[in-house]
Amino acid sequence: MWKGRFQTETSNLVQRYGESISYDWRLYAYDIEGSIAHAAALQDAGILTKTEERTIARGLREIKKEIESNEFRFKTSLEDIHMNIESALTEKIGAAGAKLHTARSRNDQVALDTRLYCRAESKAILNRLSAMQNSLLSLAVKHPEAVVPGYTHLQRGQPVLFAHHLLAYIEMLERDKDRIRDGHRRINVMPLGSGALAGSTIPINRNIVAEKLGFTAITQNSMDAVSDRDYIAELLFDISMIGIHLSRLSEDVIVWASAEFGFIELSDAHTTGSSLMPQKKNPDVAELTRGKSGRLIGNLMTLLTTIKGLPMTYNRDLQEDKEPLFDSIDQIKLALDVFTEMMQAAKIREDRTLAAASDPFLLATDLADYLVLHKVPFRDAHEIMGKLTAYSIKEQRGFSELSLDEFQQFSAAFEGDVYRVLDVTTALKARKAVGAPSPTNVSRQITRWQKRLSTQKPL
Ligand code: ARG
Known about the structure:
Blueprint: H1 12-18, H2 21-24, H3 28-44, H4 50-68, H5 81-93, H6 95-99, H7 106-142, E1 147-152, E2 155-161, H8 162-187, E3 189-190, H9 206-212, E4 217-218, H10 222-227, H11 230-256, E5 264-265, H12 284-308, H13 322-345, E6 347-348, H14 350-357, H15 364-373, H16 378-395, H17 404-410, H18 418-421, H19 424-429, H20 439-455
Bound molecules: arginine (ARG).
The site of arginine (ARG) has 10 residues, from helix 7.
């Protein structure tokens, strides 16, 4: 492609070192789509005749078919997807093919391809996030009454509905969707026409390209356009955050699936056995997801580190953006798919959740609140309940097994109605402030999500 200036061939080692075709071939459809749009702008500018434009488009579509049917021979010597396609086109249609690269550089071309790729993959991720939310929602709907202890510090805290715990993840995933939607606005800007860094002296109408490719805006600074990778960094962050959310859910699932908790039973299809211990049923999917989230964060760090020291404008370092990007996209899509399937097929063991939620100490805070409602300042109530808890542990009798006399030894504010507080159902019902897990609130939230998820617009 640059034979004019050079007298010796590129060293084989340099070819091997610098090639990106082994992975950027994946951009072929976007490269072709972009070139067809570019040809239309060249025709409009009088550089191509209408016949040449048509010949180019036909040739490019043929190449697309060849790639998709595995007939295309990618050449490492041609470095990347852009040069592989351009060279094949010229071989196929001759002179017209050699005109296609007018007013374009690989710098704006790769920016365009990557933006098209990120745009399509953002949609794919968004759809999967919704599917994942639906899967969690369906599990919540199947077990609307299951009560579990809610934990802080992984110590039993207060009773909640299992559905409330699942809905927490639906909230997190919704924020992930918001981030993807927001990032999409910055991805959806058309960079072609920026040339190598300073546009072109050939006056082409960039709006034609933007319109053909469905972009809502075009970049306004050619130097920024060829060196900007912010949108990739943002997408990699968004993906890392999704990964972190899935990783936290993984941790919950792993704990829930343990014999000690036993809150959840994963289906055989989503667990694996041990080659040594015949009794094992391991939550590998969750463990892999927890593990892969580290890799997603790593990919984000890779890109940020690549960009941070770059002078303006395009530098070859930027070729290193693609492997982390492709990897994060592939991994997060798989993780969301497999998690969606696994949660759909999971069963909550309500006998176990109920047994755990019957721990009387879960209601210690409710008893403190009871004292507050009987005019005891909260700090005093807290201390009274601390002492009462120690007493109950020493006596090996739960709160409801203590006599009113015993209660009153700790505070005169206790009355006969104290036993009414000592019931999980009552305790849950009382939590009715917005965002709290009363059964009425939770069922309203379920309805809200059902409506919201079924009416949400795609990107
Ligand atoms: N394969 C290159 C990349 O991914 C395309 C742009 C090459 N531009 C250049 N001036 N060498 O970044």
